[in-house]
Specification:
- The chain has helices at 49-53, 76-89, 97-110, 186-190, 192-201, 247-259, 313-326; strands at 21-27, 30-31, 35-37, 56-58, 61-65, 71-74, 123-132, 145-154, 165-169, 206-208, 225-229, 235-238, 264-267, 279-284, 288-297, 300-303, 337-339.
- The radius of gyration is 20 Å and the shape is globular.
- It folds into two domains: 8-154, Aminotransferase class 4, branched-chain amino acid transferase, N-terminal domain (D-amino Acid Aminotransferase, Chain A, domain 1, 2-Layer Sandwich), CATH 3.30.470.10; 165-325, D-amino Acid Aminotransferase, Chain A, domain 2 (Alpha-Beta Barrel), CATH 3.20.10.10.
- The protein is an alpha+beta fold.
- A hairpin with a 2-residue loop joins strand 15 and strand 16.
- It contains seven helices and 17 strands.
- Strands 1, 2, 3, 4, 5, 6, 7, 8 and 17 form a nine-stranded antiparallel sheet that branches.
- The structure holds pyridoxal-5'-phosphate and 2-OXO-4-methylpentanoic acid.
């Protein structure tokens, strides 16, 4: 199969339309058989639930070309399970896990020409999502839904790739204590648009959100969880009911313990502790692990000892091991790698 003529090494994190996407519609209490389509356009009623009340949830995962030339995806079963949790929280029908994984396989196979070659630094980002399609004007769940999955080749989420970024402590809250922070609902991202634009206008790459109840604990950023490393090489990551349970974070905790022999603490992390850490990174499918060099709290700067030039040594080891597993250079734990072809 001939690859598309794309400058893989210089891709940013943007949308490039590919050839095929998967669509299945839900009506009268059941999903139709679904399948691939060339049509990248969605036509829905002006009063559709998603347009009026943001009834939509989504996922994000990636396909990789391995060193030996296979195309694989990373733990798609966990994305299917999280989409189920998200759908239930917004009173939407669940798209079955086996069908989700089959759709991933179909979409990636049909767009194999867009899967970035091994060694380019780019990957294929897959975006599954689910939204209410029929008219609703009173506040209630839709009766009809569409599940869709497209893919797009991407480069690094943050410009500069592995260069440390600077983030600021946000004045806005991302999620309420008993709200929707733990699910991947579009509404969580809509509310972050103003906060991220404010951060950018003030010269920062991202926001650090604190817990809404006390504003003393570290939560996450708009699109990634935090990982910290202590001066004695312990990995510390925030535990909270209002952050997204990142699949990358869960995988990195395992990698840290089982592959690197590091101690890991998943616990509440107070903002006051941040100044004492040696390294900081943001982890997620899009972010992979992006190092943070500086955290600014209303003019007060916390400069991570790892500096602004490169990743700290522990974050680098985590990054190398995780990407090594994803690209087939390092033996993966049972069930983590789903071979597409
Ligand atoms: N936190 C938020 C708010 C996100 O949007 C994401 C991205 O999916 C993550 C964390 C990382 O999650 P994952 O590692 O499953 O991609
Ligand atoms: C992902 O990492 O898959 C996400 O959905 C994050 C998003 C902000 C791009």
């Amino acid at each position: 199969m001939e690859k598309k003529n794309i400058d893989w090494a210089n891709l940013g994190f943007g949308y490039i339309q590919t050839d095929k996407r998967y669509v299945s519609n839900y009506k009268n209490g059941a999903w139709d058989e679904g399948g691939l389509t060339d049509d990248a356009t969605v036509v829905i009623n002006e009063c559709a639930g998603v347009l009026q009340y943001a009834q939509t949830v989504f996922e994000g995962l990636k396909a990789y070309t391995t060193e030996d030339g296979h195309i694989v995806t990373f733990r798609p079963d966990l994305n299917a399970e999280r989409l189920e949790q998200s759908a239930k929280r917004l009173e939407m029908p669940v798209f079955p896990k086996e069908r989700f994984i089959d759709a991933v396989t179909q979409v990636v196979k049909a767009n194999a020409a867009y899967v970035p070659p091994y060694g380019t630094g780019a990957t294929l980002y897959i975006r599954p999502y689910l939204f209410g399609t029929n008219p609703v004007i009173g506040v209630k769940p839709a009766d009809e839904y569409q599940f869709r999955m497209f893919c797009t080749p991407v480069g690094p989420y943050f410009k500069g790739g592995a260069k440390p970024i600077t983030i600021c402590v946000s004045d806005f809250d991302r999620a309420a204590p008993h709200g929707t922070g733990h699910i991947k609902a579009g509404l969580n991202y809509a509310m972050s648009m103003h906060a991220i634009m404010e951060a950018h206008r003030n010269g920062f790459d991202e926001n650090m959100y604190l817990d809404a109840a006390t504003r003393t604990k570290v939560e996450e950023t708009g699109g990634a969880n935090f990982l910290f490393v202590t001066k004695d090489n312990k990995v510390v990551t925030p535990r909270s009911n209002s952050i997204l349970p990142s699949i990358t974070r869960r995988s990195l905790i395992y990698v840290a313990r089982e592959y690197l022999g590091l101690e890991v603490e998943e616990r509440e992390v107070f903002f006051d502790e941040v100044k004492d850490f040696a390294e900081c990174g943001l982890c997620g499918t899009a972010a992979v692990i992006s190092p943070v060099g500086k955290i600014v709290d209303h003019g007060k700067e916390i400069c991570m000892p790892s500096g602004m030039e490169k990743m700290g040594p522990v974050i680098q080891k985590l990054y190398d091991t995780l990407t090594g597993i994803q690209m087939g250079r390092i033996q993966a734990p049972e069930g983590w790698i789903h071979v597409v072809e």
